[in-house]
Amino acid sequence: MSDSPSSRFGFVDFAETWNGRLAMLGFVIGLFTEVLTGQGILGQIGLG
Questions:
Q1: How far apart are the C-alpha atoms of 8 and 44, rounded to whole Å?
Q2: Mean pLDDT, range 2-25, rounded to an integer
Q3: pTM for this model (two decimals)
Q4: Are 48 and 40 in contact (CB under 8 A)?
Q5: For 21-45, what is each residue's pLDDT tens digit?
Q6: How far apart are CA 20 and CA 12, in angstroms?
Q7: CB neighbours (10 Å) of residue 36?
Q8: Which secondary structure element, helix H or strand E, spans residue 29, and what is its range?
Q9: How big is the CA angle at 20 (ends 15 and 24), to the nearest 5 degrees?
């Protein structure tokens, strides 16, 4: 892998690692709010 400035954009390991971590965090927060409120996510935003 080259060290050119454009190599930091796109599907690089660093970006994919953080994308996965943030997706897992969002999923856990969504489950936690469902447990606290007793409503699903769609119900919380008024669509369910």
A1: 38
A2: 81
A3: 0.65
A4: yes
A5: 999 999 999 999 999 999 988 888 8
A6: 12
A7: 8
A8: helix 13-37
A9: 150
